[in-house]
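FORM 7B: Structural annotation worksheet

SECTION A. Query
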Amino acid sequence: MRFFTPQLAFLWLFFPFLLTAQPYPIIEIHGRLLEQIDSQRKGIGGVNVYIYENGQTRSNIQTEGDGRFSFKLAVKKSEFKIEIHPQDYRIVIPHEGILDMPTSGGKVEIEILVVGHNTTPEMEKKMEALSSKVSRLKAKNQLSQRQIDALSRTMLDTIAFYENQRLAYEKSIEQLKTKVAADQQIKQALQDSLVRKQQQLLKLQSQVDQLTQQLFIALEEQYLRQKKYFDDISSGLSNYIIHLKDFWDLLPNVKYYFSSNESAQIYNATANRYSNSFININDNYQAYLEGVKRYWKPPEVGRELSATFDYLLVKLHKETLLPATKNMNNFLQNRNLNKAQKAGAEAYESLTPMVEKLEKDIELIIAKLGDKM
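SECTION B. Predicted structure
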């Protein structure tokens, strides 16, 4: 359904709000420290996990025997730095030890993946190559930290899966070599089987290199599309609420904007900004919902975004704002400024709780979209 596009002009003057200091949201963090050992992962106990913010220690917790840990943290900003002591391990995920926390509070589960001295040189080589690729991708500054970590985790899972296959081939080859040395009677047949296994291993390694490169490119494109949707949705909603509040703040003093041509020009200019921000949402909201449905999980975030659009486009704009401004503008066109002033004041009162609700809803849905990337 396409909603009615306004043909009226609107304006807003800045209205100061008195803000009181709000406590920082508290997040309850449940995490686990895991070591990547070839294709397996194992919890590490007795390791200190440090959380830093702007170089200052915010938390220090020791892992339990299976690598689990938990603590609570007041979130001033979303980005934190993780270090582990003793430093016998290198953090692989989150990339560069940077942890992106949701700023809305609540419970969060995190996984810190590290490598030590227990993995094979082949696996370590592949992980270093992945880290270099991810670092180059991050340097482009096109993906969020969470997208970077999700891409890294998927790639590492894929590498570990193929590493398990590689190790199985190597084990089979070693067993064949032992049989060749022990049984001269069937030596030729065993040697032929050994050659085939070695060729299969080389083919597997070549396929793995090709498939992981293709997967990396596909994931990069997927996360770039998701980031583009997030930027468009967040900027569109943020611009809309700014210009809506412009219009809303105008209403109690509308007659003063028709006391001179200069004031009327201000009215019309701000009205056009509101109209353009509304049209942008009205023209693109269906595509935004499709993008969120495709790239965000779980589906609840898509339903919440849909509810926000419904409230904006129908409840606030079509059913409340348009009738109120139509009545006000009829008085303005007839030069009945006092009645226009009264109609504007009444519209201001009716819109006030709706504007406040929508602003909170927009702030919340943008935070949730960012948290789920």
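SECTION C. Observations
The domain at 26-117 is CATH 2.60.40.10 (Immunoglobulin-like). The first strand starts at residue 26 and ends at 37.

SECTION D. Sign-off
Analyst initials: ____
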